[in-house]
Amino acid sequence: MLVLIVAIAAFLIVRAVPAFREAGLGFFTENDWFPDAVPAQFGIAALAFGTVLSSVLALILAVPVALGSALFLTELAPPRIGRWTGYLLDLLAAVPSVVYGLWGVYFLVPKLTGVSRFLDDNLGFIPLFDSRSNTYGRSVFAASVVLAIMILPIIAAIAREVFRQVPRADREAALAIGATRWETIRLAVLPYSRSGIVGAVMLGLGRALGETIAVALVLAASFKIDFHIFEPGGNTIAANIATKFGEAGVQGRQALIASGLVLFAITLVVNVVARSVVYRSGIAAEGKP
Predict the structure, then answer these.
(1) How far apart are the first and last CA of the chain?
(2) Given a cut of 50, is residue 255 above it in pLDDT?
(3) Residue 285 pLDDT > 60, yes or no?
(4) At residue 87, does pLDDT exceed 90?
(5) Rounded CA separation 71/55 (Å)
(6) Tell me: the pLDDT tens digits for 176-232?
(7) What is this structure's pTM?
(8) Whole-angstrom distance, CA of residue 19 vs CA of residue 11
(9) What integer pLDDT is reported at residue 129 of this predicted model?
(10) Which of 195, 206, 102 is CA-nearest to residue 154?
(11) Interacting residues of 261 by C-beta distance below 8 A, sequence separation 6+
(12) What is the dihedral sign for C-alpha 231, 49, 112, 216?
């Protein structure tokens, strides 16, 4: 596995070097994307911003629902209902991303217009929810909702398995001292499962960061840094690679590979941080210094 990761990194670095030489430090600060123009002008600032913003919003939307459903299915629902409902939830992970994208464009985006307008009218004083043009459509918000639905079954499935690993004796001990069902979950289930929950969330984040087709279909691609999530536009590194690679020239493909290298690095950093958090949580749970 390590050899494969090194091989992928080496390939990306070799193919990306010409693009880094052409763009210089502007590759990390420039918003526009015209790598095949004369003179070339391209950078990933807006793409990296859109990637991180949409993925973080997707986590904010998906994690409470995923953990809540996992807790319900393992701690509250009757075994038969919990088992079949869990199977149905897992089926969401089997739906191809292009189907999510088509569903998002033709069904979800129109339905989100009312939600976006409501949040704009009531929370518009917060820049994140303010639509300056009063237009709603293929936006970062819509892409985040689609991503949230796509990563929800991954987080929920892992969380369910983690919650099932909690020793039965811990639950019974909490109930024996008079704890309510919620207090049992809070005192016995969640602390024991902390490291597993972090791992599930990070896996969901990795899926959101790398999603391509669904995001490419839902977003009205634009190259700008904008915190107004209801404004049509936005883009991500993965979606930009998927939509631009076929029509790109030699330098354009080198630039796309360079952006892929940055996405690879971001994903690698996220996984390293997650591994560190899981390790520290495991030590804390065991009571080691």
Answers:
(1) 31
(2) yes
(3) no
(4) no
(5) 23
(6) 888 778 888 888 888 888 888 888 898 889 889 888 888 888 887 788 888 888 888
(7) 0.88
(8) 14
(9) 84
(10) 206
(11) 9, 12, 13, 16
(12) positive
Q: Which residue has the tokens 């369910």?
A: 160
CATH, domain 50-250, list 1.10.340.30, 1.10.3720.10, 1.20.1530.20, 1.10.1040.10 = 1.10.3720.10
Confidence (pLDDT) at 259: 92
Q: Is 24 left (phi over 0), alpha (psi -120 to 50) or beta?
A: left
In terms of DSSP H, where are the helices of 24-139?
45-71, 79-91, 97-103, 109-123
Cα–Cα distance list, 274 to 69, 115, 205, 214 (Å)? 22, 33, 10, 25
Q: Which of 183, 225, 206, 176 is nearest to 274 (CA)?
A: 206
- Angstrom distance (rounded) from CA 272 to CA 136: 37
Contact predicate 35/252, CB 8 Å = yes
All structural domains of the chain with their residue ranges: 50-250
